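User: Please fill in residues for this 236-position structure.
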């Protein structure tokens, strides 16, 4: 979908940004922020359990809708935000992230972009959430019938800045095609592969996230939300 120069250009821009960061910032620029200093308020496993419990409530049709009161608004204004998870999600309107996990104000640090890709802006935002807000869990959330992944798999021609946006989906599509899959099975597998691709991009292009993951300060997981029935497919 994207010419080779798109990939080369993005790598060049990423490298320039990284070089600028080395010159202007300490290695882990957000970790020393006094206002938000301290360890995460829960473990990655506890954060993941909260997500799963919230989704179970949503799926059962019995959401609790926590942290949506005027008191919660006042609390997060006075004391700042302390989300327990950062989510890189597709922008698709059928994936309302806070709703499908039954969470409220100040709970989730949501990064939305078509195709749930992890380019410079998304990675930097995740770094901010983990380093500055001490978020213990990152979720990369794909979804069924993803238009961005489908377009790449089918080789559809797109214009504007879209080729640069979706270029990182290409390797995921290629891996799915290499399995000999066809039709809907091919698209579904490419969507799963794309979640994994975004996780790999997070770690490959962020020393901060890779370091914190190695130290056990953050866990990165993937999932696919099924827009046809509301279920969640957690990926290993």
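Assistant: Residues filled in for all 236 positions:
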């Amino acid at each position: 979908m994207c010419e080779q120069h798109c990939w080369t250009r993005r790598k060049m821009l990423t490298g320039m940004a990284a070089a600028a960061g080395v010159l202007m910032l300490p290695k882990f620029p957000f970790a020393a922020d006094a206002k938000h200093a301290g360890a995460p308020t829960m473990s990655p496993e506890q954060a993941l359990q909260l997500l799963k419990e919230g989704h179970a409530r949503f799926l059962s049709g019995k959401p609790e809708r926590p942290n949506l009161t005027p008191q919660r608004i006042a609390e997060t204004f006075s004391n700042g935000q302390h989300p327990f998870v950062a989510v890189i999600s597709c922008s698709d309107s059928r994936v309302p992230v806070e709703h499908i996990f039954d969470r409220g104000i100040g709970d989730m640090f949501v990064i939305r972009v078509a195709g749930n890709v992890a380019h410079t802006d998304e990675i930097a935002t995740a770094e901010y959430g983990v380093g500055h807000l001490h978020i213990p869990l990152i979720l990369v959330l794909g979804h069924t019938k993803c238009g961005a992944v489908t377009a790449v798999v089918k080789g559809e021609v797109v214009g504007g800045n879209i080729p640069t946006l979706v270029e990182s989906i290409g390797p995921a599509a290629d891996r799915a095609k290499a399995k000999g899959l066809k039709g809907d099975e091919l698209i579904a597998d490419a969507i799963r592969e794309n979640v994994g691709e975004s996780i790999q991009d997070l770690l490959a292009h962020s020393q901060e996230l890779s370091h914190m993951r190695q130290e056990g300060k953050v866990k990165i997981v993937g999932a696919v939300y099924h827009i046809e029935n509301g279920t969640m497919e957690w990926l290993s």
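For context: The chain has ten helices and five strands.
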